Amino acid sequence: MLLYWLVGSISFYSIGILIEKGIKSNDILRDKLTVRIKKIKNQPFPSFSLKGMITGEIKAFLSALIILYLAPEVHRGNSLLLNLGWFLMRIIAADFCFYVAHRLLHTRFLQKIHLKHHEFRDSSSFVAGHKSLLEYIIVEIADILPIFIFGYDITQLLAWSVIGNAYNLEGHSSLSIFFIPSDFHDLHHTCFNGNYGIQGLWDRVFNTLNPVNKKQGIMFPVSFIEHITINSSINNDTEKI
After folding, report:
1. Cα–Cα distance, 214 to 184 (Å, whole number)
2. pLDDT digits (tens, 9 = 90+) for 96-154
3. Exposed, middle or buried: residue 38 (CB in 10 Å: 0-12, 13-18, 19+)?
4. Does residue 83 sit within a domain?
5. Of 14, 76, 127, 215, which residue is most buried, by most CB within 10 angstroms?
């Protein structure tokens, strides 16, 4: 339980600081990784307070306690292919549960709960953690559900903790670093509708993808794929000439 909590907390702050203080402070990297379709209001990321950080860590520790004491532990052997398959299902299921919870938070009856998160419309990875207590509980339930459905293996749980933080922090960073086009969640914050999922799969299925965003990159390092695609296109054009 302590290991799961520590990995989640350390990876959250480490990835966030890497993005905000490392990548964004480098003009070349920032320009290269920004592929947003339209500029939106730039805001400073929310300031940290000791009270806020302690409160956040208490919530994270309680979540770890609930998961590891109530969810079934499952060992699936040493087959790499089998474990990757289960891990992929875990990501897809987590995305679906988050999609449903997030879309509900945008309904007429629940959107007031979600407005605290939408105080920030742009710019910071750490906006990912800027939410009301009630929203935190709703989103945490959505995140816990797949663990109860599939059971947990501590290795996969730790891996998901790191990757889930990367998804969440990148999605609010206004940059395209690992998995998501930078404009995907920016457009959600700008328009307050559409793009409810983690990275667009279920938005495509349920037709809630913001129509401005047509970039691919579902669960893949989109910046890397775009780099390969662009280079391939340039090479083909060069060969034709």
Report:
1. 9
2. 999 999 999 998 888 888 888 887 766 678 888 888 888 888 888 888 888 888 787 88
3. exposed
4. yes
5. 127
3-state secondary structure of 73: strand
> CA–CA separation, 166 vs 16, rounded Å?
8
Q: What angle do CA 57, 59, 61 make, to 5 degrees?
A: 65
> Coil, helix or strand for 152?
strand
Alpha-carbon span 201 to 182, nearest angstrom: 16
C-alpha R_g of the chain: 18
Between helix 133-150 and helix 50-70 the angle, nearest 10°, is 30
Q: What is the dihedral of CA 121, 123, 14, 28, to 10 degrees?
A: 160
Number of domains in the chain: 1
**152 in a structural domain:** yes
Distance of CA 35 to the CA centre of its chain: 17
In a domain, 142, yes or no: yes
Place of tokens 């989109």: 222
Domain assignment present for 179: no
List, for residues 41-100, the tens digit of each pLDDT value: 566 666 677 777 888 888 888 888 887 788 778 877 778 888 788 888 888 888 899 999
